[in-house]
Fold:
Amino acid sequence: MALEMRGACERCESVVAADGVAWICSYECTFCEDCTAALRRVCPNCAGELVRRPTRVAR
Ligand SMILES: [Zn+2]
Ligand SMILES: [Zn+2]
Structure:
């Protein structure tokens, strides 16, 4: 199953591009870099650790 690429931060709703920096937890809650720093890399939805999402590079 392919990783779903959500397009917006769940906290501030700013757009996170597929080729930009985004952070996700194991349930794929998605956050922008600013919110991830503010949240201390802990997902507010599931208390999981947030990790850098791999960058999807357009070909
Ligand atoms: Zn955000
Ligand atoms: Zn989560």
Remarks:
- Residues 33-38 form the longest helix (6 residues).
